[in-house]
Amino acid sequence: MESFLVSVAVCCAAVLLDALVGEPRRWHPLVGFGRLVTSVECCLNRAPGRPGLSLLLGTVAVVVLVMPAVLLMLFAEAVLTGWWLVLIQTLVLCLALSLRGLVEHGRAVAQPLARGDLPAAQEQVSRIVSRRASELDEAGVANAAAESMLENGADAVFASLFWFLVAGAPGVVLHRLVNTLDAMWGYRNDRFEGFGKAAARLDDLLNWIPARLTALTYALLGDTRLALQCWRRQAPTWESPNAGPVMAAGAGALGVVLGGAAPYGSGVKHRPVLGSGVMPTAATVEASIELVRKGVICWLVTLGILAMVVAWL
Questions:
Q1: Where are the domains of the chain?
Q2: What's the predicted TM-score (pTM) here?
Q3: Which of 59, 65, 153, 303 has its CB 3.0 to 4.6 Å from that of 198, i.e. a possible disulfide?
Q4: What does the DSSP assignment read for 196-250?
């Protein structure tokens, strides 16, 4: 009972700290982890034409990269007590959340797009999506940015809160590192089809419940009926089992059309249409940001009420 109250307090403190400070401009742990991931992949991804061996090597890579940090967090939670433990948990959760960073990246796209500066908007959106941004028109830029806000809100923000409540700092670290591996290796091409499969499947497993809680949150805070309809009908058509519910519900909640054809390095990818309503604009990007922010407030308020009920009981 007491541990739940402390966990809720840490969630609130981490969100507040992120809002005040944001991501470190230098020496961010995930940036260093990304460099390490690249080095390990260069060493171990040596059998792209042999699916079985490639899968084995990819699984070994996941364990080597993720388990030391998870074990370190388990050790920290075992030996630290009181305010030192709360401080470490708050810092770890704050670094994983990146809510302020999400808002900054989204607005960096929305603001030039709103004033008609398409080249600047294309340049900014290229920093958060893997599409060929130079080939996107205004609607395409808004589409890409809004999708990124909705999906990354689920992956970074809501999933981090969920896994902290379930498994503390070790759970947050496990999820965030696996999610980073999936972002770097989860491609269905010759290089990563086998090697990245373990990271991709583990990420799907870890995000299954948080994604659906996020989709429900989006639905409740927007056009609920349309969001639930889009979730039920359109999410199964999406390639990702977790991004589908999140983006379908988010698009329905906002009353916009997302998905559709998008240019990538390998060519134009024809994706299912998500949502219903108007085409996306700069206002859609802002609305998707607000949907994530309101969702976080909703979660914290709900957790606060539960904490008071627990304390009263």
A1: 2-312
A2: 0.95
A3: 59
A4: THHHHHHHHHHHHHHHHHHHHHHHHHS-HHHHHHHHHHHGGGSSSTTHHHHHHHH
